[in-house]
Predict the 3D structure of the following.
Amino acid sequence: MSLPGTTLVIGATGTTGRRTAARLAAAGQHVKAASRRATPVAGAEPVRFDWYDPATFSGALAGADRVYLVAPLGDPDPAAVMLPFLRQARATGVHRAVLLSSSAIPEGGPGVGTVHQALPGLFDEWAVLRPSWFMQNFTGSHAHAQSIRTHGEILTATGTGRVGFIDAEDIAAVAVHALTDDRALDADVVLTGPEALGYEDVATVVSQVTGRPVVHRSLTYEEMRDRLAAQMPLEFAAMLAGMDRAIAEGAEDRTTDTVRRLTGRPPHSFREVAERELSPGG
């Protein structure tokens, strides 16, 4: 059963936020779609929100009783801005919070792991979604997708490590369940697709679907860190490169039944997503 209410979706123009807002609106929920420019989102009420501008918090929270949380991109210490907001959210009537984290970041871990650790103490009803790497990293605006389109290659420091890549639509489906079901999850859940793939496998599928050759090129940890550091703070670049190294060591070689268990249907495969989003006729 879905509970009525008003959900504040932070990052409502992003990969998971956009899809979550759309699914909530389609289900008849009132959605406040938060973004820095209050960008219009179909079926939702656009509101201005900026993690680094506390003056935007009150307006975004007004009338909301639940919130979908996406951390500020590229911030190595998101808790510094997120925790004051969450305390304000609790004080103004938000009773359920669903946080987007990562399968690579445990409770109390770096970055958003600190927010994960604090969430149960702030809200009676909560959930932490810890998805594996997004399949949309290869189809959207991510650096991997850009590299595929521009150079026909995927650059990682993952070696032959495998990942249970997940469709952002499946993440959104779980997010809607966690936000609206009459029983709160009150847990953290790891979300994956139906199979663990190496980046060589991804390159093969993309090549087959698009008809253009794509290869995976392996870098060392140091090469990956330095490449990323040209685009972001060194600390964050080192963390991302470290995640690649962990993949190479087998940290993400797993699948879970979470999507099927919570949504009642199996997660989409990478081939399905590639055909949907990359196929010339898709």
Notes: The CA atoms of residues 54 and 85 lie 8 Å apart. The mean pLDDT is 95. The first strand starts at residue 6 and ends at 10.
